[in-house]
Amino acid sequence: MSAPTTGPNLDQLSPERRALVERLMQQRRAQATPKAPAAPAAPSGRPTGLAVSLFFFSADLDDAPADKYDLVLRCAELADELGLHAVWVPERHFNPFGAPYPAPAVLLAAIASRTRRIGLRAGSVVLPLHDPLLVAEEWGVLDAISRGRVALSLASGWHADDFVLNPDGYERRKALLTEQLAELRTLWEGGSSQRVGPQGRMIETRTYPRPARPLETWLTSSGNPETWRTAGTLDQNVLTALLEQSVDDIAGKVALYRQARAEAGHTADDRQITCMLHTHIAERTEDVVPRVHGPLGRYLSAHMNLFEKFAANQDIGVRPEEVTEADRALLLEHGIQRYLRQSGLFGTVETALPMVDRLVAAGVTELGCLVDFGLPDEQVFECVRQLGALQQRVRDRAEGSS
């Protein structure tokens, strides 16, 4: 399917936003210039057919992070052996929900030391909380250690409390993300950043180590259509989730994304749409619901606590103090059933295939299977092994239809 070659309507943008978009488009065109291949053989580009990856985002209500990290590392080793595509870990701060994951680069460095080929993904780096100079340095080290297996999804952030790390950045966090993305790409590709030093002196700064390949990036969107349009205009991959949207919703946003890419003149069919979804694939169908009902309920309850903390500081029409225990129980059971029936990947390899097909039809190219929501370790390992079988089943079907 061909796309129009006309550029985006930049006249509607402010001069500052127009300059940023033009700068990013120039960088994307520069990346299309053939370069000598990098040494590592990592799954950095778009995979052939649907990719199956692991995603970690556990709560830590019992404050036992060592056990959580041991599970992540052992799952990553197993996924590497089974040929899964990538391992995703988030960036979360100051709350038990996602507590083991304040420093994705550190955790992925540990994973890099115990794996050989699997991709190492941040889902996501909240870029407005950080200085791009330090992001380029930190992730450049990890890219070198892993021999080119690093990729980042970037987010603007949503919880005001996180911005104690950068209080001035909260109100303009979305614009700041776009600006910092441009700077990060410049630094990653060996360019410089002009910064004000002591006594007001301007300093031209470059970061090291210098990566051997372009930085593969996603923009994270839990559902905002404008983020999808921005990602399309800037020719970014997209990381999304089945949290507050349906598969049909994703399909509609993929259409917006593709339209924005076409209007911006991006014609290559090489972008990825990664969808995170809660997952438990077992050997037997009858094992799934009894296993996941309790852990998933506790996990969603922790997420509800985070949302209540957010709602208490925002004018969104929700008063947490008015939510009764009966209300919470009803909401939790509704959430559990929603995930089991339409917003997760639960069952066996065969019974999961219809959901996989729906996601592919919606435009998803990679599944980010969130497996660490509280099940016993052996059941999580069983799920990872079954995801290896699912990846192979998907590949076999693709080869059979070609």
TrEMBL record:
Residues 27-45 have a biased composition (Low complexity). Residues 55-365 form the Luciferase-like domain. Residues 26-45 are annotated as: Disordered. Signal peptide: none annotated. It holds the Pfam family Bac_luciferase. This is MupA/Atu3671 family FMN-dependent luciferase-like monooxygenase. It comes from Micromonospora maritima.
